[in-house]
Amino acid sequence: MTSAATTAEPDREIHYASRGSSYFDVILALFCVVLVVSNIAATKSTEFISGHDVSLGPVQVLPIISDGGAILFPLAYILGDVISEVYGFKAARRAILVGFGTAILAFATFLVAMKLPGASFYENQDAFESVVWSGVQIVAASLIAYLTGQFLNSYVLVRMKARSAEPGLWRRLIGSTGVGEAADTFIFCAIAASAIGISTGGQFVNYFVVGFVFKCAVEIVVSPVTMLVINALKRREPTYWV
After folding, report:
1. Nearest by Cα to 128 from 114, 143, 144
2. Which pairs from 236-240 meet CB under 8 Å and 24+ separation?
3. Which of 65, 92, 68, 54 is nearest to 213 (CA)?
4. Does the predicted TM-score (pTM) go above 0.85?
5. What is the pLDDT of residues 112-131, one digit of tens each?
């Protein structure tokens, strides 16, 4: 009995790897790129079922409204889960703040580029200004939503890990994403609604529900891959089990 208890005890310990790792650097770089590209893509509002309502028997499927950032943004939460699970809350906080800084830098660059005098043959100044100015509201919404959602995602995950230790990884991934994505999607939609063409309560609910469900669905679908990546990092990080 003593031997069995001793063998099982390490499973109840809480482990994190040091962030002084080349793996962490690569994940952090990818995390920042995903955030910046998502903010740029979010300036385009998209309607996946357009033109008219689609009737399927007694169920009426309304147009699905989202933004271009929905293509890539769920990956930010997947990477956030990887960082939080393997490297801990302090590493996740650093990644979130660095990502925040890169997004501000990217948008500041667009503002400066917009003010620079265009070449005599450049014909897209009005379109460029329209996208950049609409981006002010979108970037503000995205960054506030991003900070709130990512911090909640990381906090919930590490708190769940503190209770269960190594077991229960899938529950941590889904539970933390649900909380983070709900806050993120609601805040972004509430602030950026007019910039992305949302003008009615129905469109707001549509955007929030569809965005939340889509992002969580992506997380669930790719969770086996996320778990493989996390477990591979745990095996390869020499400081994780120390």
Report:
1. 114
2. 236/23, 237/17, 237/18, 237/21, 237/23, 237/86, 239/17, 239/18, 239/21, 240/15, 240/16, 240/17, 240/86
3. 65
4. no
5. 888 888 888 888 888 777 77
Closest CA to 144 of 109, 110, 179, 190: 190
Answer whether 17's CB lies under 8 Å from 84's CB. Answer: no
For 117, which DSSP code? P
Q: Greatest CA span in the chain, whole angstroms?
A: 83
Whole-angstrom distance, CA of residue 175 vs CA of residue 124:
45
Task: Tell me how far the alpha carbon of residue 32 is from its chain's centroid.
Answer: 11
pLDDT at 49: 47
Identify the CA nearest to 89 among candidates 199, 172, 194, 204: 172
User: In which residue ranges of the chain is pLDDT below 50?
Assistant: 1-10, 49-62
